[in-house]
Design a protein that fits this description.
The chain contains three helices and seven strands; from the N terminus they run βααββββββα. It has 150 residues and is an alpha+beta fold. β5 and β6 form a beta hairpin.
Length: 150
C-alpha cells in the first residue's frame, strides 16, 4: 500500500493538541472507535510504551499491539505494530499553524512476509479507502475534543 498522509487544522494550541493526542491512556475518551487500552509493561509515555488497543472497525472489535518507537515531545511520535504479515508505522505530528495547530498522521504499511506481499497486492487498493476514512474520523474526533475544551 502506498503511504497515506492525512491532516486537520485544529482551533487550539499545539500544546493542547499534543496533550490530547499523546495521552494514550485516555485515548478512548477522545476517540469513540477505541473501546479499550490495556498497557503492557510499566512505561506509560515515551519510547518503549506498549499497549493493546481494542477498537471497532467495520462493525467488529479488533485488538492490536502497538508500541512507541520514537518520541519527540511535544512535536511528534512514531507508533509501530505488526499484523497479518505487515509492519505498520504511524507518525503523529503536531505543528503550530496560525492561531491553532495542524495534526498530521503519516501511515505506512510494509509487507514483511510472503503472505503480507500477496495480501497487500490483492487487497491494498481496497483497504486504502477504509484506512483513509478511519484516519479522518480519528482526526475529527481529536479535533472535537481539543476545541470543546476551550
Amino acid at each position: 500500500m502506498k503511504p497515506v498522509q492525512v491532516s486537520v487544522w485544529i482551533d487550539a494550541s499545539a500544546q493542547r493538541v499534543w496533550e490530547v493526542c499523546s495521552y494514550i491512556e485516555h485515548a478512548a475518551d477522545a476517540i469513540p472507535d477505541i473501546v479499550r487500552i490495556d498497557f503492557i509493561g510499566a512505561v506509560r509515555q515515551g519510547v518503549g510504551m506498549c499497549w493493546r488497543e481494542t477498537r471497532r472497525m467495520s462493525g467488529r472489535e479488533v485488538t492490536e499491539v502497538l508500541e512507541i518507537a520514537e518520541w519527540n515531545a511535544p512535536e511528534a511520535y512514531v507508533v509501530l505494530a505488526r499484523h497479518h504479515g505487515h509492519e505498520f508505522r504511524a507518525t503523529v505530528r503536531v505543528v503550530s499553524e496560525g492561531a491553532g495547530a495542524r495534526l498530521q498522521y503519516d501511515f505506512r504499511a510494509t509487507p514483511v512476509t510472503f503472505f503480507g506481499r500477496v495480501a497487500g497486492a490483492l487487497l491494498g487498493p481496497l483497504s486504502r479507502g477504509t484506512l483513509v476514512r478511519a484516519l479522518h474520523g480519528e482526526l475529527a474526533a481529536i479535533k472535537r475534543r481539543c476545541e470543546d475544551a476551550r
